[in-house]
Amino acid sequence: MLFDTTQLALERAIEGAGKRHEALAANLANANTPGYQRVDVDFHTALAAAVGRGEDTRRALDTLSFAPTRDASAGATRADGSTVDVDAESAKLAANGLEYQAAVSVAHSRVDILRIAMGAK
Amino acid sequence: MGMFDAFDISASALTAERMRMDVTAENLANAQTTRTADGGPYRRKEVVLQEVAKGGGFAGNLRAAMGAGSSDRPGGVEVAGIAEDSTPNKMVYDPGHPDADANGYVAMPNVDSVTEMVDLISASRAYEANVTALQSAKTMFSKTLDLLR
User: Fold this and answer.
1) Are the C-beta atoms of residues A39 and A23 closer than 8 Å to each other?
2) What is the rounded CA–CA span in Å between residue B16 and residue A2?
3) Which of B1, B10, B147, B142 is nearest to B75 (CA)?
4) Nearest CA in chain B to A110
5) What is this model's ipTM?
6) From CA B116, how far away is CA B27, in angstroms rounded?
């Protein structure tokens, strides 16, 4: 039960949210860099595509990679050509942090269930 | 592993924004300086920021040497240099000034205190945003460490 695909998916979600945090932190770091184009990690889509493949889910989860991509859709928010909106990045950062903690909490609970089943007090 | 990359990214921004604040402070301090080592009045300085080349630095090179994909990691920010503002000096009529020219005009630094104050606020707010990102990363990672308990 501990190493089933749900736990694996949780682990990958934690990894994805961690990578996304790096991307969003890099955007904030470059908020004042002229011409900077924001990056993002779309781990939700990659994860959703991997989960629910039946027998292949485990392999799909194992080979998932979360690479940051340039967000070409974002228009320039500043005169210097930077596409970083500090407010939007901060909001995304906060939401992503909570998502990360939620995934960690669920993973923790699943480990706790196993621990209780093994007779831990 | 990339656990502490987020710290490095935010820390690079803290350094860069602090540098902006330092340079702004220097500009404000020298707003009335008419003599410099190069001769002539003080010239306004500006920090030029650039994105850190991906996978650069020691960690990036190490990762590349170990065959791990280093090109797909977001980098932080760094100070590319400190440039001089090329706008002309302000000519102020002050015949009594020791540095006045034959017509009584003194070349004053091209520092505009309003611009400097706006830059200062911008740097200060950007600094705060990056501190928040750093704290968020800290909370996330300590939460992960709780998994071990």
Assistant:
1) yes
2) 44
3) B10
4) B147
5) 0.80
6) 7
